[in-house]
Amino acid sequence: MVQSSVRAESPIIGIQLSxxxxxxxxxxxxxxxxxxxxxxxxxxxxxxxxxxGPGIRMKLLAGLLRVADILEESRRxxxxxxxxxxxLDITSQKHWWRHYYTEDVVFNQADxxxxxxxxxxxxxxxxxxxxxxxxxKPWIEAEFNRHAATFxxxxxxxxxxxxxxxxxxxxxxxxxxxxxxxMISELQSRHLKEDERRRAILxxxxxxxxxxxxxxxxxxxxxxxxxxxxxxxxxLSDLSNELWEIGSKRSAIMNLVFEFDRSNQQLATAQRMExxxxxxxxxxxxGSPNLVKGWVPALLETARNLDQSHRYLFPCxxxxxxxxxxxxxxxxxxxxxxxxxxxxxxxxEILLLNAICRELDFANGELGSIIxxxxxxxxxx
Length: 381
Known about the structure:
The chain is mostly helical. Helix content is 62%, strand content 5%. The protein contains 18 helices and 3 strands. The protein has helices at residues 23-33, 40-49, 58-71, 80-84, 90-101, 125-146, 148-153, 177-222, 229-245, 249-254, 257-263, 269-285, 296-304, 313-326, 330-342, 347-363, 368-371, 373-380; strands spanning 102-108, 113-118, 159-163. Strands 1-2-3 form a 3-stranded mixed β-sheet. Helix 13 packs antiparallel against helix 14. The longest helix is centred in the middle third of the chain and has 46 residues, at 177-222. It is elongated. Residues 25-141 form the HD-CE domain. It comes from Stieleria neptunia. Pfam families: HD-CE (PF24391). InterPro entries: HD-CE. This is HD-CE domain-containing protein.
């Protein structure tokens, strides 16, 4: 349309373009604006179209145009009368309602932020605020990120924020249940794709890192005879932690657990508590509590002889109590949880451990300790 309007008697775009308008550059901006940059071919074409020319910063213009368009996603573009005249498919309906719930987009020059204001029906605020911003905000952030290098170059960088507040006396309408379901489905699909991406990254990291860690393990084993038990266990523990971090969890445990069983008494107390607690947490997370039953009682005895302010006391007692739970020894678990509660001042941890103790009482049928003896007698009556 732009090309056919150059020196045309009846220009399609309503303006007769001369060379002074730089029509070729305008045509490049128009095409680049409509490319889907998630595709490699489109990214390549975009770079070809937006090469800077003499006196014209094409990449900056193209980026500003794309960002300006995506930020014009407010209810000014989603009027109810207009919607009533359209027969929209479900994809278009989702897009329309996202516009409708975006009350405004505000630029704050002071802190270089773009604030997206949302307005939801008060009775649907909790559910809509968990769905729509999560669909809307990443879409906008992704477009900003595509042009970050160019925007930074020209000091045009901004931070995207969302403003979520219950608006008193809001008369905003609720969207149809079919649209809500479709939005939730889209959100779930995004999360699954993100999980797949994370798994792919983790697998790649695992494949690249494991041979190097295994090589260092072999080197450590070759030096074992010239090292003290404490030095050797510390080295094993560090490498096991690295294996754990890259996702090789079973290897992380098996490389350390039996050596720790044999030699942990030769470690200094703090080191034994640190390594033992971490190894115990690993075994519990992997569902292998039986691997540590040989040395957990000794670790508990060590913990009970420590000063209440010792930094490893609370995490060690908490891990041992969880081990008793996994072993179905609820009486011992309650006892150690009580000791752990005394060893911390963190109120959130105290509340959590007390709640776990109540759950154990319930599992054992000890209702009196949960609701009180007098209440229980009343219920029995």
